[in-house]
Specification:
It is a single chain. By secondary structure, the chain is of the alpha+beta class. It has one domain. It is 54% helix and 13% strand. It has six helices and five strands; from the N terminus they run βββααβααααβ. Strands 4-3-2-1-5 form a five-stranded antiparallel sheet. β2 and β3 form a beta hairpin. It is globular. The relative contact order is 0.18.
């Protein structure tokens, strides 16, 4: 699965997901633009490193839409009726996967938040927003089981290594350019 993180404006991005056995999905605009690392790219890395199969990108790889993506209108459909049918089928599968995600879906959100806060602490240590987020991060971390905390701690060096590399690549993009990555390997695609 190829995931395109597209810098679609000065303070805007979109995501396009190409899948071999399911319709191409898009989210435009995508929420959580950041000059260093947009929100969905954080999810992509965290879920890939932790091996989460029921997070946002695991659900998409399984044929879902993670609740926020839509079938690309440019997808090769024959007519409007065919497109509506494809959209309905995609939405139904996506809803089934969201309902079945269990704790892993929640872990995806918690991990994205915690790893993002910790990584940004190095970039913007004195900002008021960062200080407030650190307090919340402590509460969230205490909500994890000891096994979950150990899993996150073991993954942290790899997550931050990938964040650093992808952040540099993301910052170098001009409007209209994309960072294209393979799921679940996190490798850059050509």
């Amino acid at each position: 699965m190829k995931v395109h993180f597209i810098r679609s404006g000065e303070r805007r991005y979109s995501v396009r997901v190409e899948r071999a056995d399911a319709p191409t999905l898009v989210m435009d605009p995508a929420p959580g633009f950041d000059r260093d690392l947009p929100h969905d790219l954080v999810h992509f890395v965290v879920e890939g490193v932790l091996g989460l199969k029921a997070g946002v990108f695991g659900q998409i790889a399984a044929g879902g839409d993670a609740g926020g993506f839509r079938v690309d209108a440019a997808e090769g459909v024959r007519d409007a009726k065919d497109h509506r049918r494809t959209v309905r089928k995609q939405a139904a599968k996506g809803q089934r996967l969201v309902k079945a995600q269990g704790r892993e879906g929640e872990l995806s959100e918690l991990a994205a938040f915690l790893f993002d806060i910790e990584w940004r602490r190095r970039l913007r240590p004195d900002s008021a927003a960062q200080q407030a987020a650190l307090g919340e991060a402590g509460r969230v971390r205490r909500s994890l089981s000891s096994d979950e905390r150990a899993r996150f701690d073991a993954a942290a060096p790899r997550v931050f290594e990938v964040f650093d590399a992808l952040s540099a690549a993301w910052r170098a993009l001009r409007v209209g350019e994309a960072l294209v990555l393979e799921w679940p390997t996190l490798e850059r695609s050509r």
